[in-house]
Inverse folding.
């Protein structure tokens, strides 16, 4: 079995955890794949290396990401594009996406005895269009965030649901998230927590200028078109999964729907979502 290991080297204690993981994988006869930059840090741990994360992901049987949710999120998106499963090892604080804690490496043996399940997480297809032409396109596992610039005024957002006029928000921004992303920025903005097994699309306004605006949960087969009212003295930015920023120009429409891709998470411990949420958020 060839396993791509992607550690977040900025995390405290990550070196010892990564070496311990690689040793455990080698004990089960696995070949460890790493980026060249990681191979130079973890000397003796790596069997195959390269400079292209996409090529290495296509080469592996599964990805193991070590870090916090951000690390797992980035690796999961690449893994989804290459149709590979991912196992997250939590070296961060919350670790909602992690299948194991780094102190539970004895359970890694279940990866080789196939004592695990694959949980498919829905993703979002996002495109920005101007006069019918696509200006930008990406996929999101967590969320799509539309936010105004630091010096911009509060902004109006018109929402179309399946081509029908639906909502109008006056707010600092809009968050469109998957159930996986419901425990991220959307939760901080007052949105609901949704079990990842419930296929749906969440829309949550950021600091709405109203007493009655609330989040809305749409079915997973919904198509949302967001038309922001951008004026000459306002700027609007689109962020996918908290990484990378695209400036949305006046007249653009943001089109969001369920992606054909799914993130495939390896589930070794059979914990319910309610138990995970309680352990991560309430303790």
């Amino acid at each position: 079995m060839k396993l791509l290991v992607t550690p977040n080297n900025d995390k405290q204690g990550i070196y010892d955890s990564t070496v311990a993981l690689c040793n455990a994988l080698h004990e089960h006869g696995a070949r460890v794949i790493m980026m060249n930059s990681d191979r130079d840090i973890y000397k003796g741990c790596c069997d195959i290396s390269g400079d292209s994360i996409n090529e290495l992901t296509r080469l592996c049987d599964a990805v193991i990401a070590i870090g916090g949710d951000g690390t797992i999120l980035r690796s999961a998106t690449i893994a989804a594009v290459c149709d590979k499963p991912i196992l997250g090892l939590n070296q961060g604080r919350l670790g909602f996406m992690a299948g194991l804690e780094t102190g539970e490496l004895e359970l890694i043996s279940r990866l080789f005895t196939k004592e695990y399940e694959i949980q498919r997480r829905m993703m979002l297809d996002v495109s920005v269009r101007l006069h019918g032409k696509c200006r930008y396109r990406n996929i999101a596992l967590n969320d799509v965030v539309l936010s105004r610039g630091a010096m911009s005024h509060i902004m109006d957002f018109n929402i179309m649901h399946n081509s029908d006029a639906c909502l109008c928000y006056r707010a600092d921004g809009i968050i469109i998230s998957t159930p996986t992303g419901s425990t991220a920025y959307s939760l901080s903005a007052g949105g609901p927590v949704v079990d990842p097994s419930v296929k749906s699309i969440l829309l949550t306004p950021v600091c709405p200028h109203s007493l009655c605006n609330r989040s809305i949960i749409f079915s997973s087969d919904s198509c949302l078109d967001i038309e922001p009212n951008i004026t000459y003295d306002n700027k609007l930015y689109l962020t996918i999964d908290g990484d990378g920023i695209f400036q949305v120009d006046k007249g653009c429409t943001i089109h969001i729907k369920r992606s054909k891709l799914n993130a495939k998470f390896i589930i070794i411990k059979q914990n319910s979502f309610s138990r995970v949420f309680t352990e991560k958020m309430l303790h």
In short: The longest helix spans residues 14-27. The CA atoms of residues 22 and 45 lie 6 Å apart.
